[in-house]
Every structure is written in C-alpha cells, then in structure tokens.
Fold this sequence. Notes:
By secondary structure, the protein is an alpha/beta fold. The protein contains 11 helices and 10 strands. Among the domains are: 105 residues, 3-Layer(aba) Sandwich (Rossmann fold), CATH 3.40.50.2300; 137 residues, 2-Layer Sandwich (Heat Shock Protein 90), CATH 3.30.565.10. Helices cover 57% and strands 17% of the residues. A 5-stranded parallel beta sheet has the order 2-1-3-4-5, sandwiched between helices. A 5-stranded mixed beta sheet has the order 6-7-8-10-9, covered by helices on one side. A hairpin with a 5-residue loop joins strand 9 and strand 10. The longest helix is centred in the middle third of the chain and has 79 residues.
Amino acid sequence: MNNQIYTILVIDDDPVIRMTLAALLEKPHYRVEMAEDGIKGFERAKQLNPDVILLDVMMPRMSGYDVCKRIRADAQIGEVPIIMITALDDKDAKLNGLVAGADDFLSKPFDKLELEIRLHTLQRVNRYRHLIEEREKLKWALSDLSEKHTQLRGLSQKILEAQENERRRVAVELHDEIGQTATGLKLILEQKTKDKDEIIADARAVTNKLIQSVREISLNLRPAELDDLGLYAALDGLFKRFTQQTKIIVRHNINPMKDHRFNKSIETAIFRITQEALTNVARHAEVNEVNVALNVNANHLWLGIEDKGKGFDPLTKNTNSSTGLSGMEERTNLAGGHFKIQSAPDKGTFILVDFDLTKTEA
C-alpha cells in the first residue's frame, strides 16, 4: 500500500479559488500549501519542493507565465510538474503556458474527477521523468566506471612493468656485484699456491667487499632510515652515499635532525624521485655538483632538483624511457602530487615536485 504524502502547492491570488481547490484536494495523501501571488509562490516552491504546482495564469506582481519560466529555469525545482489554471476556452493562455513550460491545464470551473485524474497522470509523468534521469545517470556512471577500469588496467600493467624492471635491475646488480665477488672469493679459497695466512687475508678483503655490496643493494631497495627516522634522514644518507660513489657533490638544505613525518606514500615518492634524478645526473649530466631543495609550509611540500649539465629534450620518447621520467611522473601522480620538468640541450635540468599536504593524511 502506498502511504506517500504528495505536496501540492496552489499559487492563486483569488482566495475563493484557493479555498475551492483546498476543499477538492482534502484527502489523506495530499498536503496542500497556498501562496497568494507569483513572487510568494516561487519562494514557497523553493522552500517546499512540491510534487505538483497548481498555478493561476492571471496574477498581480508576477503572472503565472513568468512564475512558470522562473521555476523551469531553477535547478532545484525546475522539474516539478506544473498545472496552469485557465479559463475553459482560453486557447491563447494554453499556448502561452506551453511555451512557458507548463505540463497540463485545469479549466475553471473545476471538476473534482478531472482534477484527480490530472494530478494522478502528472505524478506518473514525474516518476517516469525521474526514472529517465536515473537511467541517464546510471548510463554515465557505467561509462565512467568503464573508463576508470581501462585506466586502472593500464596502470596495473605499468606497475607490473615497473616491478619487472626493478627485478631486472636487482638481478643485474646481484650478478655483477655479488655473483662476481662470490666467484672471486671461491677462487681465492681454492688457491693452492699461496700460504694459508695470505689466503685468509685475501678472503677477508673480498668478504668485506661482499658485505658492502649487499649493504648498498639493500639501501637502494629500501633504506631503513626512511621507515625508522623519516624522509630527512633517508635523503641525508642518500646524498652521502651518492657523493661517495660518484664524487658528485650534492648541495642541499636537508637537515637530518628534523623529525617531521609526512604521509608514507609522499615520503617514498620524494625519496625515489630524488634517487632516480641523482642517478640520471651521474649517468648523463656530466657535472661536479647538483642542487636539491626541500621546502615545506603548512599546505605544501616542494622538491626541487637542479643541475647545470648537458640537459636534454623532455619530449623525446627515448630520452623519457632512458631517464625514467615517465616513472617519476607516475609515482608523483599516484602519491597525489604534481610533476614538472624543464630541460634543454646544454641548458641543464630542473625537476619540481609539488604535494598538497591538505589533501593527504599523515
């Protein structure tokens, strides 16, 4: 059983008409509200958002046509069904009402059965109209979901490719560093031409090198400072290792004593982008120093990395692949930031990463 209460707004300047309609609409499932002119009627419609509006054509201050047009132009109540009250044979009024946006017409004098039928019909029309709207919304939602699914599938593929590239890099390092060093250690231990003390000394040196190589690979994969001490300490350690390995000086404003923590995804993104950018400097820039700046305020965190080296064309596809620019940009976007790069041949390179801290949780 349908227990819905339908709100009907009557807009008419004639008190007799209002009383007549109120009497005809005196039913348990109707809630009848009144307004005595067009301006008050429009304001009342905004307040009530009624199911149906009964609107007189001829009223002072604002005609029924103007009220109808204002209602149709309003985003909140523009779809409310409107029945315009006209004289029995006033064809011009009905034509003007259709132009203004009326759904139906009710002629004076009123017939109770006719009024009931027109209200019932408009209620069904209104439900159908809402059903069409919901179907359109569902159609667009499904289309948007399909597009997002396609984007997610592409992103998943890129993540898999990144994982494979990382595995390949680790495998190469293990083979080149650990494998060769372990092979050298094995050959030293199998030597028969040297005395025992000399073999032990050589083996100890190679073992120390092996331990150092394992430590370097471990730090490159995930430095413990990033989890235990935070971004500042991890970057400070990265700069020291980078300078020690490449002899390239990193000039920076990073204070390792700062203990402020950021969202984990942001800390990881900043560290990896810096790590990748420094690797590019060592491989391609041909410089003796690089500048790194990390600036923070209440709302933003900025990372800037600049060198005065060879530079390149960022639009070149092969360059983007070899320098990992697309990976840096994707990592930034996934963490909710914005990535920019400026570079040109023989003009150096500048990378800027911006994170809005108001949109992330610590």
